[in-house]
C-alpha cells in the first residue's frame, strides 16, 4: 500500500519519539485486510444466503397424489355399493384402472396434516372413474 509523504514524515517523527511503539503500528497495518479483501467481504455480506429455519426444516413433508388418496378412501364404499369381489387382486385392478382415467393432482403436505379436499367436480370424476373400473373388473375378474 502506497503511503503519502505526510504519512511517512509522521511515522519518522513517531519513531524518533517512541521507538518501541513503531513495531506495534506496523503490525497493526499488516493485520488490516487488503482493500480487495474488504470489498470481497462486503460483496459476500450483500449476497442472499440460505437461512436455516429449524422449526420448518424439521417438519417432514410428503408429495401426495390427492387423486390417489381419494380413490383409496372411496374404494370400500364403492365395492359395497356394487357388490364387487373384494379380493386384493380385484381391489388393485380397480384402483389402477380408475387412476389411469384420472389426472394426477400432486400436493406437498406436512406429515400428519389433513389432505386438501377435492372440489365437487373432481369428486364426481373420481366416482365415475371408479364405477367404470368396478364394472370392468366385475365383468372380467383376474383372480
Ligand atoms: Zn377378486
Characterization of this structure:
By secondary structure, this protein is mainly alpha-helical. It folds into two domains: about 5-45, no CATH class; about 55-140, no CATH class. The chain is about 65% helix and about 5% strand. It has helices at about 5-15, 20-30, 35-45, 55, 65-80, 90-100, 120-140, and strands at about 60-65, 105-110. The longest helix has 20 residues, at about 120-140. About 10% of the residues are buried. Zinc ion binds next to helix 6.
Compact description:
The chain is mainly alpha-helical and 143 residues long.
What tags apply to this protein structure?
143 residues; mainly alpha; 2 domains; two-stranded antiparallel ribbon; 7 helices; 7% strand; rod-shaped; binds zinc ion
Give the helix/strand class. Answer: mainly alpha
What is the β-strand count? 2
Taken together, the total number of domains comes to 2
Our Rg estimate from Cα atoms comes to 37 Å
Mean pLDDT: 83
Hetero groups bound?
zinc ion
Distance between the ends = 87 Å
Unreliably modeled segments:
none
What is the spatial order of strands in the main beta sheet? 1-2
Number of helices: 7
Query: What's the helical proportion of residues?
Result: 55-70%
Any idea what the shape is? rod-shaped
Could you tell me the strand content as a percent range? Answer: 5-15%
Biggest β-sheet description = 2 strands, antiparallel
Amino acid at each position: 500500500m502506497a503511503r503519502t509523504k505526510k504519512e511517512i514524515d509522521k511515522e519518522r517523527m513517531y519513531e524518533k519519539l517512541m521507538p518501541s511503539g513503531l513495531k506495534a503500528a506496523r503490525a497493526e497495518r499488516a493485520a488490516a485486510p487488503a482493500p480487495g479483501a474488504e470489498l470481497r467481504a462486503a460483496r459476500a455480506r450483500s449476497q442472499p444466503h440460505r437461512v436455516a429455519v429449524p422449526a420448518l426444516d424439521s417438519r417432514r413433508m410428503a408429495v401426495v397424489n390427492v387423486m390417489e388418496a381419494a380413490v383409496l378412501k372411496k374404494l370400500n364404499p364403492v365395492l359395497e355399493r356394487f357388490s364387487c369381489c373384494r379380493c386384493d387382486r380385484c381391489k388393485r385392478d380397480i384402483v389402477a384402472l380408475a387412476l389411469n382415467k384420472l389426472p394426477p393432482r400432486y400436493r406437498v403436505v406436512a406429515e400428519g396434516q389433513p389432505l386438501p379436499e377435492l372440489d365437487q367436480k373432481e369428486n364426481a370424476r373420481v366416482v365415475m372413474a371408479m364405477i367404470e373400473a368396478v364394472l370392468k373388473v366385475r365383468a372380467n375378474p383376474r383372480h
